[in-house]
Amino acid sequence: MVGERRRVGVVLAEAEGLRAAAGAVVADHRGAVEQVRVAYVGVRDRLVREELGAIPVARLRDVTEGRLRVGALEAAGLGTVRQVVEASGYTLRLIPGVGAQTAAQALAAAGQIARAVEQTVAVRLDVERRDAMSSALVVALQRLVAAGPEARRARETAERVLAEVEPLVAAAGPARGVLRGLFAGRERRAQAQAAVESLAEALVGFGAREVPVLFAQASVDLLRPPLDPVEAWTDFELRSADYYGVLGGIVEEAGVELAAAEGFLPEDLSDRVRAEPLDDAHCRVSLRGYQAFGARFALAQRRVIIGDEMGLGKTVQAIAVLAHLRARGSTHFLVVCPASVLINWIREVESRSTLRAFRVHGPEREAALAEWLRDGGVAVVTFDGLRRLEASEVAESAAVGMVVVDEAHFVKNRAAQRSRAVAAWAERVERVLFLTGTPMENRVEEFRTLVEYLQPALVPLVRQGSAAAGPAAFRKAVAPAYLRRNQQDVLTELPEVVHVDEWEEFSPADLAAYRSAVAAGNFPAMRRAGYADPADSAKLKRLLEIVREAADGGLKVVVFSFFRDVLAAVQTALDQRAFGPIDGSLESARRQDVVDGFSAAPGHAVLLCQIQAGGVGLNIQAASVVILCEPQVKPTLEEQAVARSRRMGQVRRVRVHRLLAADSVDQRVLDLLRAKGRLFDEYARRSEVAESTPEAVDVSEQSLAALIVEEEQLRLAAAEG
């Protein structure tokens, strides 16, 4: 009897401890979220006031269909809607010619405009406007970004704990002692004993999921002291997408039209997709609303194409789908992609999820394949490598839960060997996801080919001329298999410049040139070794892919390199379809003429610039895609080059692609510059002296070169040893 009472006491004590921990997590998370909401409202209201301050008071006539006469308001100095909103009825009635009815109408009309602006204004965190309100929002968001998705999952688990444990703790009260049991009566005692047993089972279940550890870590993360605003802004610059992802999960994303964010799908299909569950237990990133919808679309429809415009996170959406399937029991997944983005896929899978990625390519291909088959995870293979990966052989060892095909327009020719390999896998696997940034509306025959791999029954619906009715009508017709969103529709806060690091691997010839340059201690040769063999250069192949995608969208491209011979290789690869190059040999008076010709060219065009010559003093705002052939030793060189496009008159957001070779001088340059990044940011971006004399804070090229050469010589020597 004594032993039983002791057991009951232990169970109740553990249950109350878990309940207290769960309550603390819920409260801590709610407090962190509330700080974000308060800060967000402050920034949003400021933006609303600013926008209302730019709307003339005459617009009040439009709202009242001309019934309101605003002459008296204008004569009294009330020239904007904001001034009317901030005025009281009494203040307005003091204006000659404004009676009670006019004052009431003016306030009602101004309020209607204010509400419309509030619903559409997009809160954008501008690193160049670090006022107190914006800083408060960044600091509040940083706490949740640093805590990661685990904090949200901890809160959700805590809510389940409270819902399950609290009623049982209350029901188990009579079992706490002899006297309480005597006064409770037989029925209550039986109920109490049953509640104790249910609590014991619940504690075993929660304990098995290591819930107490999850709660403890979440509380520690959510109660960390807030960062200094300078540190928070620096972190925001490094991973702004994560900040906006968290913000989008807390507040409704204003300015984003639901139909556009959902790719203009039919309402019944949209409803079904929204209802599709999405388990993010294996995700390490917070998804934007449109990204979560894209992942749900792939899950609900099973065999689809996500054709979002470049920069919207198609890779992240695919990883979210794989993470969901892993949470539901699938273990093996396959990603097929061009060799140029293979490394990016490996990095993204392992940084954005708990899934392990296997590089089934190169000399370690067989070992990686064997490990993937044994342990599960994501096998990443090139199109050529897929031809050697027999679906039937893999099927004997593992069931593949999904095949993801990146740059799916590469298989538009069904007669090609890589297309036949993809088709064989698509026939064997239940779930298939194609990714492509190429707008299918303009390539109906290509689209028919891709749909035939996935949903052949849709092919008769896709005819020549299907896109004539416009993109919205086209997407609705092919909705069961195709989802596309554009940046301007879903990323209302997108900054003017988006940086993308493109990691590639040296080709054998480039690697040989690199090793030779390292052995000779030739730093410039090391930096341009990625273009030593233009016919087989991984960097050059990726550059051409970016240019082709820009051409598909009618975008202009500017290509920067420090080296003239690199630009010559690019020009040859482009078949002379480029303006320039602008380099040191071209006199200054001629440089702007070349840029003017580039700007005046209709639609897509490419301009080649030596970064020292083209990065300063020119207006290249026609370009919205910037390609940096190699990282620059002086950060200001890159910034000044990008600033040539980011100028008044630029109507498109600028995307900057920096081409990098893994395990090379590029990695060493970035590592060393990032180590000094915060100091550089705090000084170079804020100091008037630094802006007028950028070389004051640039890292010495000579000392950096010597350090990198020495490190690379030691690294390669160790690898060979």
Automatic annotation (TrEMBL):
Keywords, in A-Z order: ATP-binding, Helicase, Hydrolase, Nucleotide-binding
One Pfam family, short name: SNF2-rel_dom
SUPFAM superfamilies: P-loop containing nucleoside triphosphate hydrolases (SSF52540)
Limits of the Helicase ATP-binding domain: 295-457
Residues in Helicase C-terminal domain copies: 539-705
InterPro entries to which the protein is assigned, alphabetical: Helicase_ATP-bd (IPR014001), Helicase_C-like (IPR001650), P-loop_NTPase (IPR027417), SNF2-like_sf (IPR038718), SNF2/RAD54-like_C (IPR049730), SNF2_N (IPR000330)
CDD domains listed in its UniProt record: DEXHc_Snf, SF2_C_SNF
The organism's place on the tree of life at top rank: Bacteria
Molecular functions (GO terms): ATP binding; helicase activity; hydrolase activity
GO biological process, one term: DNA repair
Family matches, as Gene3D superfamilies: P-loop containing nucleotide triphosphate hydrolases, Tandem AAA-ATPase domain
PANTHER family with a match to the protein in the record: DNA ANNEALING HELICASE AND ENDONUCLEASE ZRANB3 FAMILY MEMBER, SWI_SNF-RELATED MATRIX-ASSOCIATED ACTIN-DEPENDENT REGULATOR OF CHROMATIN SUBFAMILY A-LIKE PROTEIN 1
UniProt name for this protein: DEAD/DEAH box helicase
Lineage: Bacteria, Bacillati, Actinomycetota, Actinomycetes, Kitasatosporales
